[in-house]
Fold these 2 entries.
Entry 1:
Amino acid sequence: AIIAPGNLEDMLNYSRFYKQKGINYIFDPGQTLPILSGEQLTEMITGSMIFISNDYELELTMEKTSLTLEQIIKKTDTIITTIAEHGCTIIKSDGNTINVPSVKVKAVVEPTGAGDAFRAGLIKGLIIDKTNIEHAAKLGATSAAYCVETSGTQHYSFNLKEYKTRFKEAFNIEPF
C-alpha cells in the first residue's frame, strides 16, 4: 500500500490500519508535510516499509520531528530520497546506501509530476520483486525521465518497447 498526500485523519488511520494488519506500506507525505506535526510524521514513518521524499522534504521532516537521518532509518526499513536530476539515494536499515542515477533526458521541459512518475515506476518494480528496491528505483527513474520531457504532469506516454530500450541504455540491464 502507499500513503500519499490526502486527508490527514485518513493518512493516520491508514498507517495504523496497515501496521495492525501487517501490511507493508510506503509513506509519502509530499505536500502535506507543512501541515503534519512532528508527532504525526513520526507515527506514520514508524513501521513503514519505505519512507519516500525529495531532498527538501527530508530536511523538513528532520526539522519537524527533531530526528536525525540515523534515527529515522531505525523507524522504517528504507528511506528513498529523490534528488531531481541527480537521481535518488536509497538508505536501508541494514546500513547499505545505494545511489541510483537519473536517466538522461532529451530536454527538461517541465519537472512537475516527475516525483509521481518516479513513484509509479518504483511501485511497478516492487510489485515485480519487493526485495529489489534498487531495480524498482531504476524503473522509477526511467518513468520520471519521460515526465520531465513533456509539458503537463500526466501528458507523457511511452510504449513497452521504448521503455525497455531506454531502461537498458541507462542501466545496461533488462527492466523485466
Entry 2:
Amino acid sequence: MNPVENQLECGKEQNWVYIDNGTFRLSQQALLKHGPIECAYRSILRENDFSAVEGQRLYPVVDRMPLISDFFHADCRASDGSIYNNIHSGIHFDATLHERHSESSADKTPLNYNVLMFGYDSVSRISFMRLLPKTYMYLIQQLGAVVMKVPVYGSA
C-alpha cells in the first residue's frame, strides 16, 4: 500500500524547543537567529482515554529545566518579535516509578527481548502512513519493519 498523495506541509524552520534526556531545551539555531527567547510551559494531562486538559501556565521556563509532564504546550517569544507555539512530548523523570521498578521481583531475570510492536487500527495505520511518510518508510526500509495490513490482531 502506498502513502496517500496529500501530505502535510510542515514548517521549514526548525523547532525552537526540543527535549534532551528529560529536559526542556532551547535550540541554539533559534537563539542565534532570533536572539534571547522567553518561553512558557503548559502541561497536557490526560483525564481519560478520550480527553486531555492543559495545566497552569508556568513562566518563565529556562533552558535545561526538567520536564514536569510527558506532554506539554510551549509558547515562546523572541526578542526580535518572532513567536513560536508547538506541542511537544518527552519523558519526564518520576522517582516513584524508579522506586517501584527497583522493588519489583519480576525484573530480576529480564528476558531481553528486542521486539517493538506498533498496534494501529486500519484508520490510524493509514493516517500514520499519510501524515508521517518519512517515518513509515524509515521503519520499513531501514529497520525492516513488517506491516501486517490487517485491521484486527488476535481475537476480536
